[in-house]
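User: Here's a protein and a ligand (magnesium ion). What would the complex look like?
Assistant: Let me lay out the input and then the predicted complex.
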Amino acid sequence: MKINVLDSSIYNLISAGEVVERPASVVKELVENSIDAGAKSVKIEVFSGGKSKIRVTDDGAGIAKDDLLTAFLPHATSKIHKKDDLFSIQTLGFRGEALPSIASVSQMTIISKPKDAINGYSISIKDGKSTIPTEAAAKTGTTVLVDRLFYNAPARKKFLKSPRTEMGLISDLLAKYIVAYPQVAFRLENGKHTIFNSSGRGNRQNALFEAYGKNIAEQMIPFDLGFLSPPSLNRNNRAQYHFFINGRPVHSRELSLVVDEAYFSFMPAHRYPIVFLFLDL
Ligand code: ADP
Ligand code: MG
């Protein structure tokens, strides 16, 4: 059979299958890009659980006009330049896949202005085609609008849950980032309702309060690697096991087992603690 190099529109769709599972994965990628851009403040606006619209606005470094189109090419990243960079990654992203992937399964608009630029510029991408950058009023930073997620991927769209459930996954995700990045002020809005509005003052204990409320924050026990719940504060699954390695959220079977074991003799059967563990390696 003839061997064929996939063109970028097909390649992006395949990688979207891995990167973009649901609205919460879009929010994760966009928020991580904002954090990587050094944002001090990130606003996330969600409509219908992200099924109709997600807009993320930050006050980070911005994207220069000439880079706006490049950012949507597969493997386009400003975070890695040479082989050695792979061994000292300081950012959450580095593979250059999120923007082209998300854009391939939605209608996306980006407005951005770097600090030293006079004007902002905006581009829109639809059906794999991008408009040329046009001047747009903007403050320093970046706004990414993701409209009609999975409009061209009906199988994916069908698999999404109710707006309420999708919103729940987004707010769980945000709560986690609020605690992990207390120096960033996050605001999460569900339509007209504000779900989170963290101060970004940099105090992790305070961030825990802002994300999880007074009741949980007061019971959690701080220690040098994070926070642990007393055995009396527990859940029926491990969804509140939060592990971060060098600031990056990770899933780790090994770490989960360590927590299970440490709590084993204190915990009722099939109950699990709330744990935040921040490891620097
Ligand atoms: P990655 O994060 O792996 O580099 P992405 O596809 O997520 O890849 O983003 C591509 C590039 O677009 C980034 O490397 C960055 O230069 C730029 N970019 C994306 N989002 C933002 C943002 N919110 N602020 C500034 N630059 C951004
Ligand atoms: Mg990224």
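Summary: The chain has eight helices and 16 strands.
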